[in-house]
Design goal:
By secondary structure, this protein is α+β, with helices and mostly antiparallel strands. The chain has one domain: Ribonuclease H-like superfamily/Ribonuclease H (Nucleotidyltransferase, domain 5, 2-Layer Sandwich), CATH 3.30.420. Helix content is about 25%, strand content about 35%. Strand 1 and strand 2 form a beta hairpin. It is globular and about 45 Å long.
Length: about 90
Amino acid sequence: MLVPDRANIRWSLDFVSDALTDGRRFRVLAVVDDYTRECLALVADTSLSGIRVVRELDAIIARRGRPSAIVSDNGTELTSMAILRWC
């Protein structure tokens, strides 16, 4: 795996989930630069579709440029057709 030696070489994506006190579930998409450990985005919602993830990634890329690599744990959140077409 490519080891970043400066910012904007590799980003990591991860999803976490939790519940509010009333029981409603929510999810958070975290995007982190692996070199600087800067959090590039935290997106929280009750549902995060592949289309929404693509939109958020496009917004980060518009601000910072495209990284050489984006890594994840390959969870089911990143297997939607929107994500696969975007890659």
